[in-house]
Amino acid sequence: MQIRVLNENDIRKVMDMKAAIFATKDALKEYSNGKTDIPLRANLNVPEHNGQSLYMYGYVPGQDALGVKIVSVYPDNIAKNLTSVPATMVTLNSETGEVNSLIDGTYLTRLRTGAISGAATDELANPDSKIFALFGTGGQAETQLEAVLNVRDIKEVRVFDISKDRAKDFVNRMKEKLRNSFDFEIKAVDSADQAIENADIITTVTTAKEPVFDGTKVKKGCHINGVGSYTPEMSEIPEYIITNADKIYVDTFDGAVSESGDFIKPIKNGNFDPDKDITGELGEKLLEKVVGRESTDEITFFETTGSAVLDLVVGQKILEAAEKENIGQIIEM
């Protein structure tokens, strides 16, 4: 049995952000068409080592994608000079059941998480959007920025983080990394209000437990991506936006409603009925089963909590491209 091993550099050689955005759209359409088998994520606690191991797995027949992503959360790894959230994607040959690749799951997660925001922005943001506000500068922030730059002609990026030093460092790194690919200005700002003033697109990718901006100050026509709230305790988006946005979309209905504090808190307060107030899954919009933006003044909101369907489809397309170009290391098992 031959297994292809693909690290971050290998992935970058065979899949850029544009391709990842197309791949996530394919994944969402398969999911919203009911043509996937995606069980609930399995979580294992490892209290002896202050760790947790999560298993996201499934099968997408239409994309010939079968596999499992293993993600661990070990906060103490930082003191050992190791990543605190190591991840590996394992893909299988759906015909034989044999493992056929091991893919860097950490970068895969960053890539597909950025790509799904890019897909939502592409489908929902006003075409002439120019100003982008980004909240958070952690490991997921770079691909969030890159994705939006790929789908809209952004001229001004404002970055806000609770640490101004982190925001400045992020801005400097992104200037260096993206200046040859995109024509835009990027700056760190001192407040959330400064970030969202007249912003056409807002993305939040933080670990916040309280809203990170004032929803009443969001301009008409803005599109918002909520990325960071993937547990009931986490909450980035003001309840005002959840209850007043003109259109609300999610990556997966069950995941977003059961996992995101952005929704769970207003549901508990009796201010939000997901069955009535969520316009639909983004995949349903792509399949034209639900409407998209209907005017330039509408405020649209997209919530993602992540799903194995994204890892499976994007991972499979990475593998296929790597096989075609003979990228990666082959090991015999």
Structure report:
The structure is a single chain. This protein has 333 residues and is of the alpha/beta class. The chain folds into 2 domains: 2-108 and 309-332, ornithine cyclodeaminase, domain 1; 114-307, NAD(P)-binding Rossmann-like Domain (Rossmann fold, 3-Layer(aba) Sandwich). 37% of the residues lie in helices and 23% in strands. The chain has helices at residues 8-14, 17-32, 105-124, 141-151, 164-178, 192-196, 239-244, 253-259, 261-268, 274-277, 282-286, 308-325; strands at 2-6, 42-46, 51-60, 65-73, 87-92, 99-104, 131-135, 156-160, 185-188, 201-204, 223-226, 247-250, 280-281, 300-303, 329-332. The strands form 2 sheets. Strands 9-8-7-10-11-14-12-13 form an 8-stranded parallel beta sheet.
Please summarize what this structure is.
By secondary structure, this protein is an alpha/beta fold.
Q: Features of this protein?
A:
Rossmann fold; alpha/beta; oxidoreductase activity; 2 domains; 15 strands; ornithine cyclodeaminase, domain 1; NAD(P)-bd_dom_sf; ODC_N
| Radius of gyration using CA atoms only | 19 Å
By DSSP, the count of extended strands is 15
Outline type: globular
At CATH level 3, the topology of the largest domain is Rossmann fold
Question: What is the CATH architecture descriptor of the largest domain?
Answer: 3-Layer(aba) Sandwich
Question: What's the tally of helices?
Answer: 12
Helix content: 25-40%
CATH superfamily label of the largest domain: NAD(P)-binding Rossmann-like Domain
Beta-strand percent range: 15-25%
Please state the structural category: alpha/beta
Family: Belongs to the ornithine cyclodeaminase/mu-crystallin family.
Pfam families: OCD_Mu_crystall
GO molecular function, one term: oxidoreductase activity
InterPro entries: NAD(P)-bd_dom_sf, ODC_Mu_crystall, ODC_N
